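Re: that chain you flagged

S.,

Sorry for the slow reply, it's been a week of failed gels. I finally had a moment to sit down with the sequence you sent. For the record, here it is as I used it:
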Amino acid sequence: MQISVAQCPMYQEFARTHCINNTEYIYAQAHSIAPVCGTFDTTIYIGYCFCGCLERSTDVWVQDPDSGEDRMQQIDSILAGSALAHAFTDETTLSAVSYAPRQIEATTAGGEQQPLVVLQLQDGTTLGASELHAVLVSTGMMVAAKDLQVGQKLVKQDGATSAIVDITRTPTDDDVFNLLTDAGLNHLGHMIVANGVIVGDLMWQNTLAKDLNAIVVRQ
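Prediction finished late last night. Pasting the structure tokens below so you have them in one place:
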């Protein structure tokens, strides 16, 4: 089962005071999962859900774990363990981006009630994301897709920038998708490449959402 992004922290906090201990709570935060307590006895832990997003046709920059070959792969075909996701390293700055392949710990798929935010960039790139999907802008901030504005510049795979020239809202009946790297609570390790644009993975829609609109990548 998948729950909404907004509910994930609430599930974590509720479980922390009812059916899990603090160590388990920290683990839940680091792995973007929502612990589920019993309905009739909330002191009983009964399981967990992944919290979670990108449009189905979005291409993610990954590496084949066997051959080491880099490629763009459509997100709906990516399974945990089937590929490594290229993510920012700790040394990355806006003027010198660098990547390291990371294990994909989990993937999610689920419906989206709100219209997707479709971004059209000056260089012709298009990206469709759910409202709360985090996107890196040229100031070094991660910003929720719903808060982006025409004229803002997004950061591309090579560190160059491209301005948003159009933003539309597109309802969808299709599933949306996301993935989670194994970077724990490391901010930069959860920043990946989607359609050539730097975006956040599942962690940025959950545990790291509190850090939106703050500088996370230095100049």
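What I noticed first: The mean pLDDT is 87.

Talk soon,
D.
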